Amino acid sequence: MADSKSKQITTLTFIGMTCALVASVRNIPDVAATGWTMLFYMLVAVLFYAFPISLISGEFAGMFPQNGGPELWVSNSLGRKWGFVVSWLLWVQMFPGMVMVASALAPLFGNIIDNVPLGLNSKFTLVVILVVYWIVTLLNLKFDMAKIGGKIGVWLGLYIPLAMMLLLGIITWIKVGILPHGTLGSFSWEKLIPDAKTASSFVYFAPIMFIFTGIEMSSVYITRLKNPVKTYIRGIFAALIFLFLVNTLNALVVANVVPKGQMELNNIAQSISIYCQILGLPHIIVNIFSLLVFVGVAVQLSAWASGPAKTVTASARKGAYPPKFNFWKTNQFDVSKSVILTQSTIISIFSLFYLLIPGVNQAFLMLVNSTTVIYCIVYVIMGIAILKLRQAHPEYKRPFRIGKKGSNSNLGAWIVVLILFAAIVFSVGLTMKAGTLINLIAVTVISLVLFFAPLGIEKIRKPSWEQEVTDKLNKE
């Protein structure tokens, strides 16, 4: 009993953990680019996307508190094949996702050396991504980067820049008020809802949804909450309100100072530079900010590189991949050299977007859209899985249950899942419609190839693979 109590976490701690999982400075320019309509997009993302995902994940995590996350949940509902598909998708989403994150490093470096045009050059962006990510790869093979870089990366890449951006932004707003030439512009009630005049902002709808991807992982703490049902709902809602406020307030002050049509989506330091000019602060603040965030993002990349790789290794040891790939074999840090090198090679290929697609903003949006669509496929599978489990196993103990407590009705679960599906179709559909034809084709092809690939692997899977891997592990 004492051990159980010692593992319990408070509501405040749970809120903090949830925010740390999904909070980011990288998405603020995406939100800011939509102007006053950001309030509409953010509300839709919170209420009809993030909240339903959290509810579905909460019920799953209560039933299956073991390690495994979405892969375990889906496997227990839809079977091994779909569990593997989810595991695969959560790995491959990092291919375009990591390139998107790493693309922020080039403009940061440009700001560090006071050469902003260089940082916004597509070829230079490609070089920075390749150099930094391969350094990250080599470090992960020699050191336990997840352990070394976790806390440092969060502070330098998240907490400090968020606080600096918000503080300087608010002071600037107080000094100059609403700037008429800014992306935000003068306020009017009709600007809050997208219409024919602001239809171009739909291109940012899916990227704004992307802010909340990964929030399902906070549900793993549900069994450590004192009162899972009440505390989880309150904690998630409080975390979502906090994330809404932090992202929206930061985006509002950024949109106020960045001139209309000049938002640089992967340049986190753009607004800091403008704040310093308006407030008459020394330019070295921009250099220091850029250096801190550069180090923070690079360290975060190091920590993230090994996480999904371990999921692939776990699947390989269950016989999901051909043994000759050596995905099952790990070093002293429990990292598979084969998986790390494979993902780094594929990420390098994805980074060629910055060479092939004209314009850094266009390439950035294509990458974030691809990552979002892949994640949305996972959430659709999870939605189907929760409904299947309700029908097949109503007797399972559910510490947290969607719907009225003590009721046997599945209506609440159906409503939540349908709301999530509608939000996904609505946001992705409008984003694709507002974007370019190249964006639509690229995102569709990437998503379809990465979705059907695990089904192909599953089809050729041999029962002997698992035994062969087991034999090799025993010889290690």
From TrEMBL:
InterPro entries linked: AA/rel_permease1, APC_superfamily
Top-rank taxon: Bacteria
Pfam families the UniProt entry points to: AA_permease_2
Segments crossing the lipid bilayer: 9-28, 40-61, 82-104, 124-141, 153-174, 202-223, 235-258, 278-301, 339-357, 363-389, 410-430, 436-457
UniProt keyword annotation of Nucleotidyltransferase present: no
Compartments where found: Cell membrane
Membrane-topology annotation of the record: Multi-pass membrane protein
Main location group: membrane
Annotated Gene Ontology cellular component terms: plasma membrane
Molecular function terms from GO: transmembrane transporter activity
Species classification: Bacteria, Bacillati, Bacillota, Bacilli, Lactobacillales
Annotated protein name in UniProt: Amino acid permease
Keywords for the protein's UniProt record, in alphabetical order: Cell membrane, Membrane, Transmembrane, Transmembrane helix, Transport
